[in-house]
Write a structure and sequence with these properties.
The chain is of the alpha+beta class. It has 11 helices and 13 strands. The protein folds into 2 domains: 5-139, 2-Layer Sandwich (60s Ribosomal Protein L30, Chain: A), CATH 3.30.1330; 146-310, Alpha-Beta Complex (Phosphoribosyl-aminoimidazole Synthetase, Chain A, domain 2). The two termini are 40 Å apart. The protein binds adenosine-5'-diphosphate and magnesium ion.
């Protein structure tokens, strides 16, 4: 059944996500009208997912809808911000009802869970690509930046990095592992952005970044922005049981260099550690100390054989083969 652009927007995107009182005008006019609370700084992020680049061609629409919003929620989490409003620029080869139903249901479900209202967007025809702009806020001066880490600060990561990259490898048939299959694939298809943790880290973390390109690459970005280095202890890496089932060396490799985790990597000054643990118990909030910020630039990984230094950045869309 052919859907007009108007019908498509009306049916799938007119009332998506949370209903919010601060949306004076949402989908339907030329632009949305939004009220930001007094004293708050507006936080804005945009991320695009391109078919065949950021997700495998033929990927389930539910996963595309979920991930398009999740990657932006993760960016706001890394700033310590609370998400509020989203705009969705959707480029579709054709208006396929089952695809749109899966996509919009997953997008809306994740938006609803985080109190986000879809307030506008754009719909065009072309090769499949999804771009989401997410807006939120935080108290003026309260943002978590990449640049605040100092030598001596403790280095943490949330969740179990590496799962998503292993899941993608399984999804693409580059890796075979029956036992771990479903858990790891779900971790790629439906990442859970650490929005509540990011907000609660304001006042504790000296620097924060979300892990999208790989733990090592993103920790290195944080270190560079802060003008120092990071030392990671391989033995401290929090590896999920399904990832460990792939073998110790492979699991460690995925955890250090795999992307798409959407976990938070953050640093905390040592004098704040006791209070952090008291207020946000690590067992409850699911984060792990993996190392320390150091003076010597680069990312240094210590394992049983010694220390390896990585100075190269992660995946680059323009230099990747
Ligand atoms: P205009 O041509 O004035 O930009 P559009 O026809 O593109 O208007 O959009 C009409 C309304 O629908 C606008 O409010 C726009 O923000 C919204 N909209 C369009 N596409 C989407 C989408 N994919 N998701 C959410 N809102 C959308
Ligand atoms: Mg438009």
């Amino acid at each position: 059944m052919a859907l007009s652009e108007f019908d498509l927007i009306d049916r799938y995107f007119r009332s998506s996500g949370a209903a919010r009182a601060d949306v004076r005008l949402g989908v339907g006019d030329d632009a949305a009208l939004l009220e930001c609370p007094a004293g708050m700084t507006l936080v804005a992020a945009v991320d695009t997912l391109v078919d065949g680049v950021h997700f495998p061609h033929g990927c389930r629409p539910e996963s595309v809808g979920h991930r398009a919003l999740a990657v932006n929620l993760s960016d706001l989490a890394a700033m310590g911000a609370r998400p509020a409003w989203a705009l969705l620029a959707l480029t579709l080869p054709s208006a396929e009802v089952p695809w749109l139903e899966g996509f919009s249901a997953a997008f809306s479900a994740l938006a609803l869970r985080h109190g986000v209202a879809l307030v506008g967007g754009d719909t065009t025809q072309g090769p499949l690509a999804v771009s989401v702009t997410l807006l939120g806020w935080l108290p003026a001066g309260g943002a978590l930046r990449r640049s605040g880490a100092a030598p001596g600060d403790a280095l943490f990561v949330s969740g179990t990095p590496g799962d998503a990259a292993a899941g993608l490898a399984l999804e693409q048939g580059r890796l075979a592992a029956e036992a771990a299959r479903e858990f790891l694939r779900e971790r790629f298809l439906f990442p859970e952005p650490r929005v509540a943790l990011g907000e609660r880290l304001r006042g504790y973390a000296s620097a924060c970044i979300d892990v999208s390109d790989g733990l090592l690459a993103d920790a290195l970005k944080l270190a560079r922005a802060s003008g120092c280095g990071v030392e990671l202890e391989a033995a401290r890496l929090p590896l999920s049981a399904p990832l460990r089932a792939l073998g110790a060396a492979r699991a460690r490799d995925f955890a250090l260099t795999g992307g798409d985790d959407y976990e938070l990597c953050f640093t905390v000054p040592v004098e704040r550690l006791a209070q952090l643990q008291a207020e946000l118990p690590s067992e409850l909030w699911g984060y792990t100390r993996i190392g320390t910020v150091c003076v010597e630039t680069g990312a240094h990984v210590r394992d049983e054989r010694g220390v390896k230094t990585v100075a190269a950045p992660g995946y680059d869309h323009f230099t990747a083969p």
